[in-house]
Design a protein that fits this description.
Blueprint lengths: L6 E2 L2 E2 L4 H16 L9 E5 L4 H13 L3 E6 L12 H16 L3 E5 L5 H15 L2 E6 L5 E3 L6 E3 L9 E7 L4 E7 L4 H11 L2 H12 L3 E11 L14 H19 L6 E6 L14 H14 L6 H13 L13 E2 L7 H13 L5 H4 L2 H11 L23
Parallel strand pairs: 3-4, 3-6, 4-5, 6-11, 11-12, 12-13
Antiparallel strand pairs: 1-2, 7-8, 9-10
The structure holds nicotinamide-adenine-dinucleotide.
Nicotinamide-adenine-dinucleotide binds next to α2, β4 and β11.
Length: about 400
């Protein structure tokens, strides 16, 4: 099959196995080129196939030499349809890691379900033993609740009043004004059910009950704060409510993990191009401007650089875990530097169709987006016939 990007409504419906493998290889090479980290030896990564979760798995395995179990929800290839990028990424990770010596196991299924939790627990009991790190990196638009069977959809909406913002269609390069009506109470509640801390809690409860968390184990979930420019749609919106819930959950989990001297953290990460973030209105414009400013100042990072720094300087810092006054790890520290935020806000105010190609890093944004699906990777022959089946052993 010859695989080309198929894009509709800022989503890409095809992925390239060779390109995804190259992307994973580049991330592994980056970590291998860095100093080793005295950190996790056995890690469970929930949401391990793309974005921040994939980077968390790679840094655990290659930065710390850990055995890893990755849980994700990805699509297999079918006749005339490629697998999703996360499946190719995970196949590539498994291929490289087995040659390099760490153990790894991958579970493809709905992490919100009791069934996948049970499968993971049985696997850990049989193959890995207790884990010392649990990363929770799920981004999902919906969740079927394991107790009620009801499926909840999250909403990306402001709260209280309508939000009108500049927006950028990063595929066409066209700017527009977008207005989003405020969420009602039910939409807020449902977004918290999908993206808040309940499922993270269910995972930690299940692992504690099965005695599969090692002494001093750490769990970390990812959050975002971002600029005041996107507050109405992000931090003060429905998704922000879910993130507040996730952040509160960290304290509850630390309490539950007291007997094993464990700790739960939320890490606030940098805004980056991932499948999840490109779907949020105003975010592609903000990130394109942010990349321009951060690249000029040599402060730009991708998921893999962020997570390497998270493990090395924050989670496994020999002086203890570094947090802000609210107990959160802040690897968005460079993004949030006042001088960076000021420059981005100035550029935002003057962004138009005519100047967006020069004042922002629109090309970099687009390239990162294509790379999520294995396209636009150097050294890949995209005219070659490739087998779309992902070669991965799944549990
Ligand atoms: P992503 O879309 O790249 O990855 C999401 C992962 O979740 C994938 O591995 C996917 O398979 C998995 N997943 C989704 N639904 C699942 C399910 N039901 N069962 C099992 N796995 C499932 O997203 P990302 O941007 O890396 O986001 C990960 C976390 O990081 C999120 O909490 C997000 O809010 C946070 N974060 C993202 C950014 C950003 O700019 N991208 C910034 C800060 C924090």
């Amino acid at each position: 099959m010859i695989i080309k990007p198929m894009i509709r409504s800022n989503m890409c419906f095809t992925s390239h196995p060779d390109g995804c493998e190259k992307n994973v290889k580049e991330q592994i090479e980056y970590v291998k080129s860095k100093q080793k980290i005295e950190g996790t030896k056995k890690a469970l990564i929930i949401g391990a196939s793309t974005g921040y979760g994939l980077a968390s798995r790679i840094v655990a395995a290659y930065g710390c030499g850990a055995d890893t179990v990755g849980v994700f929800f990805e699509r297999n290839a079918e006749e005339n349809r490629t697998a999703s990028a996360g499946l190719y990424n995970s196949a590539a990770f498994e291929k490289f890691v087995s040659a390099d010596g760490s153990k790894s196991f991958s579970i493809n299924g709905d992490a919100f379900s009791d069934e996948v939790k049970e499968k993971t627990i049985n696997l850990l009991k049989k193959e890995i033993g207790k884990v010392d790190l649990v990363v929770y990196s799920i981004a999902s638009p919906k969740r079927t609740h394991p107790k009620t069977g009801e499926t909840y959809a999250s909403a990306l909406k402001p709260i209280g009043k309508k939000y009108t913002t500049k927006a950028l269609n990063f595929i066409t390069g066209k700017m527009s004004d977008v207005s989003i009506e405020p969420a009602n109470e039910e939409e807020i509640e449902k977004t918290v059910i999908v993206m808040g801390g309940e499922d993270w809690t269910m995972w930690i409860d299940a692992l504690l009950k099965a005695d599969l968390l090692a002494k001093d184990a750490v769990t970390v979930a990812y959050s975002y704060v971002g600029p005041t420019l996107t507050f109405p749609i992000y931090r003060d919106g429905t998704i922000g409510r879910a993130k507040e819930d996730l952040e509160k959950t960290a304290f509850l989990l630390s309490d539950k993990m007291k007997n094993i001297n464990g700790k739960a953290y939320v890490s606030v990460n940098k805004g980056l191009v991932t499948q999840a973030s490109s779907a949020i209105p105003a975010v592609p414009l903000y990130i394109s401007l942010l990349f321009k400013v951060m690249k000029e100042k040599n402060l730009h990072e991708d998921c893999i650089h962020q997570i390497y720094r998270l493990y090395k300087d924050f989670l496994y810092n020999k002086d203890g875990v570094k947090t802000d006054s609210e107990g959160r790890i802040r690897i968005d520290d460079w993004e949030m530097k006042p001088e960076i935020q000021k420059e981005v806000a100035d550029l935002w105010a003057k962004a138009t169709d005519e100047n967006i190609g020069t004042i922002s890093d629109l090309d970099g944004y687009r390239k990162d987006f294509y790379r999520l699906f294995g396209f636009e990777m150097d050294g890949i022959d995209y005219t070659k016939d490739v087998d779309p089946q992902a070669k991965i052993k799944l549990i």
